[in-house]
Amino acid sequence: MPGPALALDLDAVLADTRPLWDAWLEDAARRARVELEVPADREEAAAILDDALGDWRPLLTRFVADRAPLWIRPRADTNAALRRLRAAGTRIGAFSDAPRELADLALAHAGATREIEVVGTLAEVRAALGEAATVVRSREELAALR
Fold first, then answer.
1. Contact, 90 vs 118, CB < 8 A?
2. How far is CA 28 from CA 51, 54, 56, 64, 106, in A?
3. Whether 65 and 10 share a structural domain
4. Angle value at C-alpha 9, between 52 and 102, nearest 5 degrees
5. According to the model, what pLDDT value does residue 2 have?
6. Is 82 in the same domain as 65?
7. Number of domain units in the chain
8. Tens digit of pLDDT per residue, the chain (146 long)?
């Protein structure tokens, strides 16, 4: 029987990717000289970006790789909690509506990649870890787990 599982809200618990995403949208619109009206839900925004910019994911990856250190830093207390939980046999996933390229780089810059087993939407993380995975939506909730 698998051990306990946690589904962490990437943006609320590990690394807030929204400011980086917003900065990239502004930069992409300026560079492409287009007006980018995208919804707040980044999964929905991806379809609009496909139409407006074509192959935009490499542009996002380059932008995030260059600028993530300015926006995202490791948090010692959060990473210690992740290591403690993993050592106790807890399976950990991270969910977000952010594009996978952004999520992966955010995890790397937060220093959490090694502790995270699966990354995706909440549905994808629950499918991989099991529907009984506890959803964690704040650093305080993570710190309270034993």
1. no
2. 14, 12, 9, 12, 19
3. no
4. 35
5. 59
6. no
7. 2
8. 457 999 999 999 999 999 999 999 999 999 889 888 899 999 999 999 998 898 999 999 999 999 999 999 999 999 999 999 999 999 999 999 999 999 999 999 999 999 999 999 999 999 999 999 999 999 999 999 97
Which tokens go with 9? 């809200």
Contact 119, 125 (CB under 8 A): yes
β-strands 91-95, 118-120: how paired? parallel
Burial 122-140 (b: 16+ CB within 10 A, else e): beebbebbeeebeebeebe
Q: Which residue has tokens 């980086």? A: 20
Bridge partners of 95, per DSSP, are 9, 120
Q: Give the domain-ending residue among 26, 50, 70.
A: 70
Q: Which two tokens stand for residue 5?
A: 């599982």
